[in-house]
User: Fold these one by one.
Assistant:
Number 1:
Amino acid sequence: MGFGCLTTMDSLKTFEFDALGDNRGCSVQSPAMAMPSSLLWAVDIFGRVYTLATTGQYWELCKDGQLEFKRVSAVKQCCWGIACDHQVYTYVFSSDVPIRYQEETYENQRWNPVGGFCEKLMPSDRWQWSDVSGLKHQQLDSFTLPSPHWEWESDWYVDENIGGEPTEKGGWTYAIDFPATYTKDKKWNSCVRRRRWIRYRRYKSRDTWAKIISLEDPSQLPDPFNDISIGGWEITDEPAGRLSVWAVSLQGRVWYREDVCHHNPEGSLWSLVATPGEVVQISCGPYDLLWATLWEGQAIVREGIDRNNPHGISWTVVESPGSENGIMHVAVGVNVVWAVTKDRKVWFRRGVNSHNPCGTSWIEMVGEMMMVNVGLNDQVWGIACDDRAIYFRQGVTSSELSGKTWKAIVSGRESDRSQTGSSTSLLSAGCFFSDEVRDQANSIIQSDGDVSSDTESPRVPPNHADAPLSGAAVSSNENNADSQKEVGTHLAVDPLDSAQEEANSTSSSSEKAGLEKPESSVDQDTHPAELQWTNIDLKEAHKNPVLTSSAFRETSSVSSLGLFPVGIEEPYGTDEHPFWAWVSGGGCLVDLHSPLKWFTIQTGLSSSVQSLSLSITPAQTAAWRKQIFQQLSERTKRELENFRHYEQAVEQSVWVKTGTLQWWRSWKPHKWMDVRVALEQFTGSDGVRDSILFIYYMHHEEKKYIHVFLNEVTILVEVLNDSKHSFALYTPERTKQRWPIRLAAATEQEMHDWLALLSMCCCESRRIQGPPSHHAVWSVTCKGDIFVSEPSPELEAAPHLIPCDQMFWRQIGGHLRLIECNSQGIVWGIGYDHTTWVYTGGYGGGFIQGLASSADNIYMQSDVKCVYIYENQRWNPVTGYSSRGLPTDRYMWSDASGLQECTKVNTKPPSPQWSWVSDWYIDFNVSGGTDREGWQYAADFPASYHGHKTMKDFVRRRRWVRKCKIVTNGPWLEVPPITLWDISIIPSSAADEEDSIAVWAISDKGDVLCRLEVTQQNPAGTSWLHVGTDQPFISVSVGAFYQVWAIARDGSAFYRGSVSPKRPAGDCWYHIPSPQKQKLKQVSVGRTSVFALDKNGNLWYRQGITPSYPQGSSWDHVSNNIRKVSVGPLDQVWVIADKVQGSHSLSCGTVCHRKGVQPLEPKGLSWDYGIGGGWEHITVRGNATEAPKVALQDTSEEHLAKSLDPEDGENGRKGDQSKANVMVIEGQELDRNAVSC
């Protein structure tokens, strides 16, 4: 990427993006290995590397197959491996976002009385070309590519931006002397100046094995490597994107690869780490857990690994489980350690966690393995000794880290797909013309119930149990019927497929488990037969085997009959059984909610059935449907003939549901009261259903009640409360007062039942059903709940606007942080963990089930968010900083405001739906910066915090963070693999007929992206197109006619020129000056209007935008106390505002609508307050319904004059301060009845 100064228009700077000779940007199509799903990596005994996707069923050969590898270690974004030449290689997945690194250097000049500014500096000055500090000499020609895997994007260019403000031509910034504060304006005392030169390099070796080239001194080169392990990407408070790469050389020395991160995937150099002995193998977990094995059979554990010291501090020795057989192999995860001793026994380390990385004791597990590997979520894989097959450890959960049983992965290789077609015809003959095979298969399944459950079957070596017989051998063996039945007595149905077998096995034996080998039966309706073992794998008590070894030899000799019946070809062929040498699951995320396809053999039966179904022609299907319809019609006539003499029934039913809840009394004394509630639903003669909610309470020993007509309810919303499962019920009048009816249930399930019932009744009374329309208004609460409202044409019609507090909102399942839509039904959302989701067209989900939810298009959805608390300390002259503060100080453990005590113990997840997924750790990514221990310093509480200590700092604080996760469902599908920060969809109108829809986004790293091939039929699109920038961005918006505006992280605004359907990425950025002394954070573009929001909550309108000058001329202030803004396709303006004045309280996070927006008054006139508080995001970019044009009456001018903004005072009209600006008196406190959901 390169930026070069092209033109200057007044104070406007133009930058051009030219990537690899293409001004449109760099488009990278997502290849097969772009990881829409996570991958399991494995190496066979021939050194070939394979990958198996969690959503796939076949092993795929990795690219660059000519390389032979010994071992690999993988994470989500890359894989490192050691080839047979003992050299280290890395495989980085391709992505739509390139890996780019910015090189920079500064040109310094000093003013000379003779020639002005020149290159001649004083002897005490810095170098003419230096780094930002001036201490390092950096000329332009001194920068070289670190390895052949990089390439330059463009030549050097000058950065003409300083702190979000454009500089003069040439990019010079001025100061009094070196070093000092630089400004863009030249003054009389500006004696020095400097400018920054930038050049980008791009990592090009993606989707291929790239050799790690050592640039160190040859005498310091490490020995040839023997083992490698990568992890540490989630080290406590580790910068995002950093990896810890550890390697072991043939001489037994341990090496650490420095500076491996997202923008430097190959690292910089190898550092030697001293060890107490010669190391054989090493394993690194996602966090700070690192174990290694010694030649003597002991294990060593690295302690002291943290953000500031990724190498760790010291080693601790852990003895092997037994004195005779030492440890040969270890594998670590987050809180688990697995080991294999020299006698091939598998061991589990008990008591391992971040505070005790050494654990407490060893537990022997059943099974003999060559090696084991721990992946994400502490899932475990292993390679068995006998058959060299890969086994997956089932039943591993956070509560049972050791799992339950081993299960073999029997997936075929991609090259084997071509061999399955030849077996289809044989299978058809074997299935449909061989009753003997069918009877034999049924006998196997039926005999499973005869297995004794109170005794344990001895372990069968997999190489005997799985030895396949050829089809000819099986068919020629005519006297195997009896032995076939005997096999059935030792086989069982897959415990995952049979709940009854799982229950029986668990109840009978809970101390030991074995290896399971799936077998395929001929009948598709039957479950695969497997070897019977119990569930729990802790080898504490052995039981005597019931069967003799001779019986097992007889069984194993014919066990393949259950595995490969007549006509079924072996998946690997007779001589192609895969033998694995290594497996790595560090990048494999196994979802416990979705089943894997790794454990069933594809026999080709489904292909036969499919070919049979495809032989039915559409004409035959149509004839059958017509015949069935005629038969049903005749039957209906016959049935109705018997009831002709009955009168027509009139439905007038009444239905009542009662229950006990708690109700928040909104007058003094404010408290929760036990009440009886009754929901009465009745159906009128016109068929319209309506409902009334009665709440009965006692007041001064007198029974009273309040009632609410549900056709007047505008929203039902769950409310965050530490001690109550409560929800709020709003009506238009209560919305104005900010006083909803608050009810609480005893349990969360009871609350969700009432919410679902009340929501369904509200929708029935308003005749709303099915999915939202394309013009719906979407919103998100601060809790993450999603709400949608159907706008009426009068919502934007003047002069008789429908107040937005009368809008009805219904909930849609899912959990999001922000949401965007357009009028063609395209809806995208982003979760708190930056995962991207696209709307599937369904409705319901979450707690809304049954008839109120669509039967399809509902999928599982998860989200992860962070909970923050603050540790506060005050300086003491005797002891220094301590947790003892003054009586007037805040709590020593508190929230951000300091008004509420929040400790590590009493801080709970936001609601019972959330569960902790991490421990507390220090957050270093805090505004203002921190020191090495995460502290921020200030003169007093509260004040402006900074990351370094001064003599005037008497207090300090640091932020602790803990992650929690929610699992729900809703009409959303994930769009992998890039995580996003912001999203924008072009607000199409009803007249638009474009096939492709423009979707722009900002990644969580600040990259600008454009989504390709987004249509109504394919709302998720196909791939991302990267748009180059010279700094990270935080907000983007695409308006009508492909107007693209964006906000950079430093608060500056940019306009993207020449964007069109044929050039979706445009060609250049125009730097737009921000409002004076303000830093912007969000922008929203409509049809002709552009509104921006700064970091202080001020809303700005861009003046002077015309088709010939789309960048506009200046910013006009509109309002303050704004959190989010959304401009629709009709230039309508909706915001989320803070501190909105209600009748009784102040509300934070309120939906507000700008009234009076017209072509001659694009800024609008006043605010109309809607639902709130507790709202976080709103989008009206789908509401393209044109309002009927009604001429303003002369009598309305006085009403409009009263609602004008103070900024319009120059027009001779004075506005109402409380309605024009969302502003209140700062000293006024929030009312205790205000609801924050």
Note: The first strand starts at residue 5 and ends at 9.
Number 2:
Amino acid sequence: MSQQGYVAAPPYSQAQPGMGGYQGGYGPSGTTQPLYGHYGGPNQAYNAPPTGMLKSPAVGLPPTPLSTQYSQNGFSFLSFPNNVQELSTYNSMPPQPQPTPQQITNQMSAMITYCQHAHDNSFNGRRTNVATAYDWCPSYGWCSPMGAPPMAGTPLMGAPPMAGAPPMGAPPMAGAPMAGPPMANMGRPFPGSPPPGVGGFQQAGPGTAGLQGFPQQPGRHRSDVIRQFGGPMAGPQPGMPGGFPSGPSQLSGPPQKKLDLDSIPSTIEVIENDRLRYEGQIYTTNIRGQVPPLVTSQFAVQDQGNASPRFMRCTTYALPCTADLAKQCQVPLAAIIKPLAILPKNETPLYVVNHGETGPIRCNRCKAYMCPYMQFIEGGRRFQCGFCNCVNEVPVFYFQHLDHMGRRVDFYERPELSLGSYEFVATLDYCKNNQPPNPPAFIFMIDVSYSNIKSGLVKIICNELKTLLEKLPKEEGSESSVIKVGFVTYNKVLHFYNVKSGLAQPQMMVVSDTAEMFVPLLDGFLVNYQDSKAVIYNLLDQIPDMFADTNESETVFAPVIQAGVEALKAAECSGKLFIFHSAIPTAEAPGKLKNRDDKKLINTDKEKTLFQPQKGVYEQLAKDCAANGCSVDLFLFPSQYVDLATMASVPSHTGGSVFKYNNFQVWYNGDHFLRDLRKDVQKSIGFDAVMRVRTSTGFRATDFFGAVHMNNTTDVEMAAVDCDKAVTVEFKHDDTLAEESGAMMQCALLYTTLSGQRRLRIHNLSLNCSSQLSELYKSCETDALLNFFAKSAYRAILNQPLKNVREILVNQTAHILACYRKNCASPSPPSQLVLPDAMKVFPVYMNSLMKTAPLVTSTELPTDDRAHQRLSVMGMSVEETQLLLYPRLIPLHNMDPGSDALPAPVRCSEERLSDAGMFLLENGHSMFLWLGQASPPDVIQGIFDLPSLAHLQPNMTALPELDSPLSKKVRSIVADLLEKRTNSMKLHVVRQKDKPEILFRQFLVEDKGLYGGASYMDFLCHVYREVRQLLT
């Protein structure tokens, strides 16, 4: 085989030296290339590749014919024409002559390539697919090569000819074209406010605002992008190629053909291939650095020394050995940790280890807990720490002899020696004031102002609590919950209720001095529900009537949280506040807020202030709550702006959640709200938690993203942490990592259980280390990468203009792919965009992230909605961010009602919709049932009991319960999805071409954005040009 031939990929659990023979790095420094630097770091030169390797032929000429190529590692080719213009001159370029049919034919025949490599098919290896080269022709667009397997269905040729303009790409990002090495600050794309004009990021001049992330296009108007009721248009339209500028002659030439989605990497195909590979399999965790199945696959985990991927996932499972390699590749090094994740019923629950009064065995130096990475020596009398290499004495009670392999003979009898995840019972040394904790408490705090009474909200809350309190979370095996409950109502003043079991009637005590908040009663406020059931029922019946005639519309908010903190502090327990609130707090009291929603700030450098919470009272409250184990869950029912960025700052620092129901009406939002409330109250949770992540020598945890509070640089404080909350941890190099020993990390979570017991939950994970970038790239996990990028970008918008944040996302995408192409991929013509196999759908997720509400600049998006999504994402796990950035679009019109299988999802694009179709779309937060205008009458009759689609009522949020097989099947699918997801979702039934359809279309993430932003196809073209700039 030629030098371009395939080198068989090793099992990915082992680091392999010297793959492919390509040099690491970007070559020696000292070139005269333009400089490209990171924020706050020195500029570095980016060297061109060796002469002739990637040099473009003259503009207008077809590329040199290619022979069949084979890839060295798993990657995909997307090919572009060689006659690409420089980005810096793109908009001012004169029109080029239309290519002749013969030129088109020559180019098409020259670009057909097929590349394939043998794969490691072992179960523990990285999932791989046949890599196919997809070429770009200036007149026909994306073309699947002859003889190559199609990605989904039969590949089609088709794209609009651009009448002499370059193929669809993007202009420079309002600044100089990129040239230079990756940002030196590799792991963290948003280190701080950038100096103006640094490293290829220039500030755009006036009038450059346009489609999201790209400059305004000449001759284009916003009305061209968003048609009334039409949503974003799928793919380029005549005279409008995607979200990017075109040459002045773009309307001339032969008729345009539609681009073929099947010719570019498909998220659906990647998910389906992974599902088929792992479904029904047992994933064992006994191999260092193995890449787990995707979060979308169903599989069982057997813990054999590393934590389950349900608890910990990494952006890559092979760390670069040196900081220089990390800077070069730009792949962030991070772990996403969901410490209290729920395990499926077919997996073994975590073992609880109790060492009595002596407590857990730890390293004397680094304080790491006993785990499988500790090496016992000297006949078992000592152990060497796997994290800091310190040698420790083994306590007498813990001594055990070693077998012929140097392993303790009780290895399989002790979970801490053989498993990746387990729990220790904590001693009094781990408790506040060296006292065992009291059982936690839930306090329900209800806003009884005029709007909440009038809407019926207070009544349905009180009715729901009667049944919900019977289902308070409890420790597995316990007969009943030991959680105590308390009740507060408020408007301008606070009402506390004594519900002691001996009372015939509940007693109300009013606190009107909100400036100096205190709890007027101790005994009788926090009670056991079962003991005080009759009194609590009486209270919940009376509250709606008690305030039925209120005219009070002003409310307080900060004193409500303060009252909850004081109550928990007085009871010496941790707990959670459930606050039901409706309006911006305008009453004279601490924490009073003013309306600061200024649409004039949109698309300016001051837009970031809209996301920043107001400091002072709420900042101090967050610290008090974290210190006292008081978590806050906020249910908001606003009819206008409430400054959510400030009001949600306490929940977002205490492990809490924020739920929002705009213009609440019981008939419209009631079921949605009640499902959320039930899920929230009943979920498994730990209180008063502190988490620390320890690592082996050579790297360390440097940054943390989540609904957490940081008092110092190492301790992650969470007043509560539930089974859905995740913390994303970023790592940086301290020193060189050794390939032989790998890299280890240990997450230790100290928390109070539902029964009031103090415990330590330990998760251990070992990764490979490699000096070969190819190992790093094929060990990447795209879903985890996007979780990190989303959280780091959403934090960055607090301090940087949105335009800069979007530019950094695009630039980092280009750098990651440019580094892969230069150092890992086989030599290939410059017309190809080479994607690592493990990251071939990375661009579609990144483009979707850039079109999310917090990162688009539109005056049409409510500020509170943008702030809400920003804060929600910060605590999300990998599963949630994956679904948020690529919703599931499920066709229901052709399914078999008698089958138990869920129909296979299709690509999230308008091209997949059909006039006679019915589709269900969900992203974990919203759910739509879309009905085509030509939907068959029998389908409408079977689901809605209506003769035709025209009889369907607008604003439907629930499906009627009919006895037809189709109705039962659709309702079953909806119910299953509502049960699986972290949050409840409100169902929207929308008809094609109705006005509400515009809400549905904004979730078709492969199309152009509703509020600006490129289609997936256009973004790929733009990334290709950015990569090309870096490599020439």
Note: DSSP finds 22 helices and 37 strands in the chain.
Number 3:
Amino acid sequence: MLGQWHIGKVQNPILENSNDFPLVFAVQEIFGYKTHSCRKALCIAGYILSCGALLLLFYWKPEWDVWANCIRCSLEEADVVLLRTTDEFRIYSRKNVSWISVSALIKSRSDYPATAEEDSVFSKAIMKPSLQVKSIQVQKIRYVWNIYAKQFQKVGALEDHHTCSAIHAKFGSGLTCNEQNVRRVICGPNTIDVPVIPIWKLLIKEVLNPFYVFQLFSVCLWFAEDYMEYATAIIVMSLLSIFLTVYDLRQQVVPCIFSSYHRGIYVAQILHYMSPTGFQELESHHLVPGDMLVLKEGKTLLPCDAILISGQCIVNESMLTGESIPVTKTHLPQADNFKPWRMHCAEDYKKHVLFCGTEVMQTKADDRGVVKAVVLRTGFSTAKGDLVRSILYPKPMNFKLYRDALRFLMCLIAFAAIGMIYTVCVFAINGEEAGEVVKKALDVITIAVPPALPAALTTGIIYTQRRLKKKGIFCISPQRINMCGQLNLICFDKTGTLTEDGLDLWGLLPSERNCFQDIHSFSSDCSLPWGPVFRAMVVCHSLIVWEGKIQGDPLDVKMFEATNWVKLALLFLINKRCLRELPAHTRSRGMTDCLAQEFALKGVIIIHQFPFSSALQRMSVIAQEIDGEQQVFTKGAPEIIAILCRPETVPSNFESKLLLYTAKGFRVIGLACKSLQPGKQSTNLTREEVESDLTFLGLLIMENRLKRETRPVLEELSAARIRSVMVTGDNIQTAVTVAKNAGMISPTNRVILVEANKIPGSFSASLTWKPLEESKSEDYGSLTERRIRLALGSGQYHFAMCGKSYQIVAQHFRPLLPKLLLNGTVFARMSPGQKSSLVEEFQKLDAEEECDFQALKVAHAGISLSEQEASVASPFTSRTSSIACVPELIREGRAALVTSFCMFKYMALYSTIQYLGVLLLYWQLNSFGNYQFLFQDLAITTVIGVTMSFTGAYPKLVPYRPPSQLISPPLLLSVVLNILFSLSMQIFGFVVVQEQPWYSKSDIHRYVPFLGLWVTQNSPSGTGLNHTIDHYENTTVWLLSTINCLIVALVFSKGKPFRQPIYTNYMFILVLIGQLGICLFLVFADIDDLYSRMDVSIVPRWGKLLSMSSRIFLLLLLLQEAVIENRPLWLLLKKTFRYHSKSHYKRLQRALEQDSAWPPLNETFFSDSVAISVEGNMGGHSNPTFDSSEDAL
């Protein structure tokens, strides 16, 4: 268990990441509180007196709600718990403690616990004498209070402390009815129930968002001022924005969840063992951890996670892994030791676990007669439940744009507060009524803070999402589109991503009597002779015959097809059932007899299989020739196979030959065999006994070609200064060669191999840097050494390391890890957990990245190239299975990010322009009329907000990224200059119109152009604000501010280099022309009804004001292009003032550029003697990927 218990505060983290398929959930701290009656009564009074405002505040801040209503106490006494994430967001959530009664199930203490329950959390959670269980539910997972350990523990899963023998002994005979009932009540049903939230509930939830609450306040105020048209428009826009977002997510996420949910859970009927009544057919939602179930023959969808304890299964795990490759599952060994079963099985424990939602394709019983499994996890605790929860509770995004947007809004609110004070002073001094003063003061807030901002930003993202959908890229997390515009590092898998899915068998390099023989080419018609190598290729695989087809790993399929047994001896493969499973037209009697006679002495039967292990990097089978002896055949990573073989059977030039072929980019597989001693029972042999003292047979050489899109895409990314990294499970030399062929590593750059090893008999480790070069002559070697030093001096080098070295570095040399990642390009032999860890470490260097499958949910923007069900865990899914989607996503992300900046700046400037105009008119107790507001808000701003986002992405990726923060000198300068010019433009018009000889405060002169005279129109009797709207100042300021909005929209509509030129957005250009035409029409027209409704009057001699507007537009355009968007100028200013980026990545890069001793080529460091010159906060990151437990809270 993790953490210690303290009074009032327990820092026991909830580790929500799955141990089987790593997904990312927040680690949380838990605090205990007890409801206080007096405090609760005071809070209820506050709710009533504040008309619900305090309740709304507590909804936004649940920690304030707990602090106000409760007092701190121990977790044991708590009826409310407060959870806080330990990441940078520090998000609080409140959970009420609930009680589960089991008194009806337990009549007396002697009834419970039974044998299986003595040391389980179920018995330790039942309080005496009330027979109740204290529980909380966090992100669909239930936790119960362990009264002995004094902490909350997860239920819905079998405890990890059980040994292999204990699982067989305690659960092999099933649970009693009493045990099942108690566990069923405490754990809940075995379902992954994702209720469809009604649209109206989602709308209410969105409306309670702080910004939408502000919109609701604005709408209510506008209705009070009879400004109903725009209020209605804002309501419609907001509802449309929310509906589109909700609809899009429901269309893409929910069907995917529910299709698998209904197929995998409701329809499953399994044979269930219940002591002492025996087997019983039971619906899957009744299952509990510890139940024993029997798997029947035929296709079955697993309703839970289960440990296989007898027999063997072949399953399809594409729902979780994305790869439709049959996986062999073997039963858990009955090892008699004190190690927990996971530790005993090490990283191979998954080979004994059947995961929820996966399809059991075949079952094979052992001598005990049936295939049995013990339920390991149920409901949302399963691997599939984790996948669903990763969608329901995605990782929060820490994006600078959204943080800066909130800060900018706070500035606007402060700006509005100043305007409110000014408004109150002006109207109070002039003797206006208190109600009118309050309304006008509140109106200033709705003007200064644009209520339509969320809808405008959402609209831009939706347009981008639709463009991506047309290109075959689907998104379930629209907010991550903007993050794609900041990507500067991409992590690629190799096989199936950079290279073709299939492998071509290039050749076989056999070995006999400690020497390699002539290479055998499979392209020739000459077939392999019958012998150990031939038999190894025939039987050492995990292929199955399913529905008349051979299915399995593509490598195994290619290897088996090369033997030509696909045509000749399929009926003798694997086991006797293969003949029954073939289609009728392929198994005629004559064919069977012919094959039996031809291959009677050459048939091979697979007796036992040790499946491939990514940790061991090999697989083995025990096979027997017909009328022959039993033999072991092993294949795997050549360097591993060579270690397992007897030294006298391994050729002396093994390493040079391996280097020769891997350097050419081939995938090399080692083959070995040995004969078993007669009389030994093969099923009783351990894997260590089987895979020892082998005879080396040779190397199988396979070619994995690059996809035709790979090199052009990587070259495009490199030209855009977007770094590419390869993360693969293949051999490191093969990965380096593929990286060179793909263009990740330039021919002039050097590769440095980083090797880390644990020192035997010690807790320390060693770390060595050495150049990864092919064997050359001595003269060439000295030249190579000089070239390497030259490359290192210029920083043109790349690190390559394997997964084992990466893990040792992360554990023993953590301060060096950021240095290695800075130039790390190839990471080979990486396990899925190590891939996730690597992505997290890159993120800590301020590198935004994409990656593949199990790291998809960890990355800022993961792309799945698979259409399998597991792809729902990734934010993006591409219909095309090539990396050509990556530049498209980055282009659209950059365009979306720039559009968001443009929209935010425009909306802020539009509200500021309107705010300045209103405050200017308030000086004369004047203001804009309702239709004037409506024209600016609806006809100008709303239409511009909708059409500005139509501009598409620029087709070329430039070698720099768009800015990621609003609080930056160029953007602030742009906003400040536009505010100053807008203010000067309105003050100029305000003053100029008052200096005209025809100006009068009391009379409105309407100029008749064709008569050349003014007609006097007396203003209505009375005083007050509503009688002075149609003044010259009002008309002048309103028209100038409206034209100023058009100028700002055009100036801020940035095109190249991230978006297409503005003239390609035909709709936006037509809208601007139409709006400008309407403004000019209002200037020169003389239509009484129109002027009366719009509260404007004709102002003579507008030429001077229009000329000034034109000059300001040209000046703003010039400043925008010559100063604001002048990248070389800002770079020069940075260099002049010696400004350096404060990101970890840049700081570390500068430190290494000044370190002449880095990298320490051909040197070895030890973990207890490393001296680090880089600041500790750069490398001292905690990472729970390597060692985590999810049982404690």
Note: Residues 885-922 form the longest helix (38 residues).
